[in-house]
Design goal:
Phosphorylase Kinase, domain 1, twelve-stranded mixed β-sheet, globular, outer membrane lipoprotein receptor (LolB), chain A, 42% strand, alpha+beta, single chain, 4 helices
Length: 337
């Protein structure tokens, strides 16, 4: 009896020792990653451009899922083609300089000049210093996505003005296989992940050309990083979160019939938001109404009147951040006419 008891004690102690060594190995691996984090992130950024692949990925938020087929060609000129497999058809063609979205149900095309938004799995971009400045990186262990082993890397914001993010990065190629934005309670707000992927495939440019050829009568919307001859220096954001930079600025006709609407886009390379500014309607009963909500997926929305303008911000940031941005907007005299 006493021998059995001692055997159990010894087995338990051995288990503790093995666990301690495993934990030490994990910590050592974590420390090595943190020490080489800049080089590692640069390799992740390059992987999305230098690899040819095709696969299916899913975007999931709440109880909704949307699947898309993706083909990426890195042979010669880099090209990406994405086709939705659920809901209304949509096709996206990107060559790194322009993103062209086809909406056949509406016979419309949207052209985005420059890197206004990132397309999965190209989510980590160079230069990578902004990630290290605004986020703390942690290695959480390994996982599997679409049968491939991957490192789970957590991006923890250094303030409370942005969400945490978690990436699962392929062990062999450093391609992002899964990306999640987490809420304030670490719940997944939106997750993109591959369900199947074929790497190092010999993709031809014929596989990434637009499927829709006869589009001469389609409506075209052109969005540029910076509208020519446009400079809205009289708009200031007093409490812009650290690391955010303006990447787009242009004007368009307001959908509310209040003249011109100014649209600016900001990003810290991982999170982003848009700010819309238009003149307030005179004598409007809703002129002082404040609209605040958290939209589906990771988007927050806040709209309020600031002086003689209606300021609206939409972004993948916590609602308190969006509110701070709106409340800190000021205008010079030229825009307060």
């Amino acid at each position: 009896m006493k021998l059995k008891f001692m055997t159990r004690i010894i087995s338990f102690l051995l288990l503790l020792i093995i666990t301690a060594y495993s934990t030490a190995d994990e910590l050592k691996k974590n420390q090595e990653f943190l020490r080489d984090s800049k080089a590692y992130l640069e390799s992740v950024s390059l992987a999305a451009h230098h690899l040819s692949f095709e696969g299916v990925f899913v975007v999931q938020h709440e109880n909704k899922m949307l699947a898309s087929k993706i083909v990426h060609c890195a042979n010669g000129q880099e090209m990406t083609k994405i086709n939705t497999l659920d809901g209304l058809p949509r096709e996206i063609i990107s060559d790194g300089e322009q993103v062209k979205s086809f909406f056949p149900a509406y016979h419309s095309i949207r052209l985005e000049q420059g890197q206004i938004r990132r397309l999965f799995p190209d989510l980590i971009t160079s230069p990578v210093e902004s990630y290290l400045t605004n986020y703390k990186l942690n290695y959480l262990g390994d996982d599997r996505v679409a049968t491939r082993s991957c490192h789970v890397i957590e991006f923890i914001p250094k303030d409370n003005l942005r969400y945490p993010h978690v990436f699962c990065i392929d062990n062999e190629t450093n391609l992002v296989l899964r990306a999640s934005t987490l809420g304030e309670n670490n719940e997944p707000l939106i997750t993109s992940f591959f369900t199947e992927i074929k790497l190092d495939k010999n993709v031809s440019h014929a596989e990434v050309t637009p499927s829709y050829k006869d589009t001469k009568n389609w409506q075209v919307e052109n969005i540029k990083l910076q509208s020519e001859g446009t400079n809205f220096n009289d708009i200031n954001i007093g409490r812009l979160p650290d690391g955010f930079k303006k990447i787009s600025e242009f004007s368009r006709e307001s959908p509310h019939g209040s003249g011109t609407m100014i649209h600016q886009m900001y990003t810290d390379s991982l999170s982003s938001f848009s700010i819309f500014i238009e003149d307030a309607q005179p004598n409007s009963k809703t002129a002082h109404t404040i609209i605040s909500k958290i939209l589906q997926n990771s988007l927050s929305f806040y709209s309020a009147q600031v002086n003689n303008h209606v300021v609206t911000v939409v972004g993948d940031l916590p609602l308190n951040s969006i509110k701070e941005i709106v409340s800190s907007v000021t205008f010079s005299r030229s825009s307060n006419r």
